[in-house]
TrEMBL record:
SMART domains: DEXDc (SM00487), HELICc (SM00490). This is ATP-dependent RNA helicase DBP9. A motif (Q motif) lies at residues 25-53. The lineage of its organism: Eukaryota, Fungi, Dikarya, Ascomycota, Saccharomycotina. Keywords: ATP-binding, Helicase, Hydrolase, Nucleotide-binding, Nucleus, Ribosome biogenesis, RNA-binding. It comes from Lipomyces starkeyi NRRL Y-11557.
Length: 595
């Protein structure tokens, strides 16, 4: 069935040139409410970013907006600010009317939480007029119905949750004036097309639409035809001069290496402190997450894991602690981006009984949590480097991965390991099927970066392998210790801990917020035999540059136990006391009191 909005003529879409909007605009010149300006100032937004300077004035003109801008460019604030301003103005005209006026659709719970937090920060000084709720939280339906019964002005959630509440009449939409689809292409790729079509049928015919994405694909065009009426299309690329002035650049490098050398180079990079600051390591498989984590633990390098196995509360807590600098290294999967259309169709079909093999289980595992996403939209703050330990399957996924760094005017670096065809499969224990296509994928990525990302260049980076090979025997010891059994044990142990932690986050820590600081996600799993000598890097292994790059001198790490046996320690204490008593007769002299 063709929707009514889809029949609207869209041939008149306005593709705007960057010069139509003055990049020197200030928030004060936009005519915003003083309370909103005060909240913006509190967030240290000095001036509108490129997408904000273009989108906000067009939004005030009532135009539908389809914006393509790089991640970290401020797309969330670009639609949140005009929506909040419009709600404030509407409240002045009808102060007693209580109704939901804006719906923000996002693909993942993590992105819903992030969007909700930004909205709360922007309405902090006008909370009595405007308030929003997040119905993507992992809470019961009764709690969500209670939140919606107060008629919040802004509702944030995934399409499936929003549609469920619309159908149950707990979310009235007759007064909705704004709708946002954030990360529009990802919403479609997660299988929300039917939900969007059903939501559109219930919405009023006249409303303002915001479609936001870092890439424009055919999927985004489907949403445009479903919701928009002659939208203003903003395809934004910050020129090199502006990027240099703001410092918001991402240097991209690639390293051709074998599969086992990925582990060797990762060990050298993080142990010698070649990367300063916080980093995200992307892998393509959940087991791969734990293999890299256990491998790095052998050298005393602590890292936390982030994947779809974790409960929602734990994933949100990991993001929060990372942004507050509790730890500096995340090993993450974005397996949602690894699903191809063929795998999606295969997973939905009935598999014959004689073919229920490992392939079926792995496909189900990939599709277990479609509302999980790390590389898309999530605001990892102050990330210095993105390391593509495993190259993604698509150039679009690569764009979103490296978008985790170089955000909000900061500089960053992206380093990708590429396995040449002749080296794939040479080391079975470290092999991954996706690496077989690395050279073809990297060629597509390079073409896409030059064509669609402002002529960005991925430069080759060559390590001096003669110096790196000095660390190979240590890498071999650590890698052999990380067996499949150890990976399964670590994965089970970590998931059990996170499930318990998630329950605590939901109940106990609401009443005891101070104890939340004690919960860490980067502790050592100890599923393998700990080799203490690997944590120390001898001076003779270090090149001169390596010695200077070490953050601190670790000193000597002994081969014996650092803690003395408890019984021997007690005996030593008693022996010392007895010696002191024998040495001083007055201390051993006892007087018996007579009555």
């Amino acid at each position: 069935m063709v929707s009514k909005r889809k029949t609207i003529e869209t041939s008149g879409d306005q593709k705007l040139d960057e010069t139509l909007v003055d990049n020197s605009l200030s928030f004060e010149s936009l005519g915003l409410d003083q309370r909103l300006l005060q909240a913006i100032s509190r967030q240290h937004f000095v001036r509108p970013t490129l997408v904000q300077a273009k989108a906000i004035p067009l939004a005030f003109e009532g135009k539908d907006i389809l914006a393509r801008a790089k991640t970290g460019s401020g797309k969330t604030a670009a639609y949140a600010i005009p929506i909040i301003e419009a709600i404030i103005r509407a409240k002045y005209n009808k102060p007693n009317e209580r109704a939901t006026r804006a719906i923000i659709l996002v693909p993942t719970r993590e992105l819903a939480e992030q969007c909700w937090q930004l909205v709360n920060k922007l309405v902090v000084f006008c909370g009595k007029l405007v308030h929003g709720v997040n119905i993507a939280q992992n809470v019961s339906d009764d709690v969500q119905r209670s939140l919606l019964s107060e008629f919040p002005d802004i509702v944030i959630g995934t399409p499936s949750r929003v549609l469920a509440h619309i159908k149950s009449s707990t979310l009235p939409v007759k007064n909705v004036t704004h709708i946002v689809v954030d990360e529009a292409d990802l919403v479609m790729s997660y299988g929300y097309q039917a939900d969007l079509e059903n939501i559109q049928k219930h919405l009023p015919k006249t409303l303002q639409v915001f479609l936001m994405s870092a890439t424009l694909t055919g999927e985004v065009n489907e949403i445009k035809g479903l919701f928009c009426r002659n939208p203003a299309i903003l395809t934004l690329h910050e020129d090199e001069a502006e990027a240099d002035a703001d410092g918001g650049t991402v240097e991209q490098f690639m390293v051709n290496c074998s599969e086992i050398d990925k582990f060797l180079l990762t060990y050298v990079i993080f142990k010698l402190g070649l990367i300063k600051g916080k980093a995200i390591v992307f892998v393509n498989d959940i087991d791969r997450c734990y293999r890299v984590k256990l491998f790095l633990e052998q050298f005393g390098i602590r890292a936390c894991v982030l994947n779809s196995d974790f409960p929602v509360n734990s994933r949100l807590h990991v993001l929060d602690q990372f942004n507050r600098n509790v730890y500096n290294l995340i090993i993450a999967t974005d397996e949602a981006d690894q699903i191809t259309p063929d795998e999606q169709i295969k997973a939905e079909q009935v598999v014959p009984a004689n073919n229920q093999s490992r392939e079926k289980k792995s496909t189900k595992r990939k599709l277990r949590d479609r509302e999980y996403g790390v590389s898309r939209g999530i605001d990892f703050q102050n990330v210095s480097c993105v390391l593509n330990f495993d190259l993604p399957n698509t150039s679009r996924a690569y764009t979103h991965r490296i978008g985790r760094t170089g955000r909000a005017g900061n500089s960053g670096m992206a380093l990708s390991f590429v396995v040449p065809n002749e080296l794939w499969g040479k080391h079975k224990a470290s092999s991954l099927d996706t690496a077989k296509r690395d050279e073809k994928v990297m060629a597509r990525i390079q073409r896409d970066q030059k064509k669609n990302q402002g002529g960005a260049e991925i430069k080759p980076y060559v390590f001096d392998m003669k110096q790196v090979d000095a660390f190979r025997y240590r890498m071999d010891d650590a890698f052999r210790a990380v067996t499949r059994t150890a990976i399964r044990a670590a994965r089970t142990k970590e998931i059990k801990h996170e499930i318990l932690a998630s329950e605590k986050l939901k109940k106990h820590f609401e009443e005891n917020p101070d104890e939340l600081e004690q919960l860490r996600h980067d502790r050592e799993v100890h599923a393998v035999r700990v080799q203490h000598h690997l944590k120390h890097v001898p001076d003779y292994l270090l090149p001169e540059a390596g010695r200077q790059s070490l953050v601190k001198d670790l000193g000597f790490v002994g081969m014996h136990k650092t803690q003395q046996n408890r019984i021997r320690r007690v005996r030593a204490i008693h022996k010392a006391r007895s010696k002191s008593k024998r040495g001083d007769p007055l201390k051993s002299f006892k007087v018996r009191k007579h009555t």
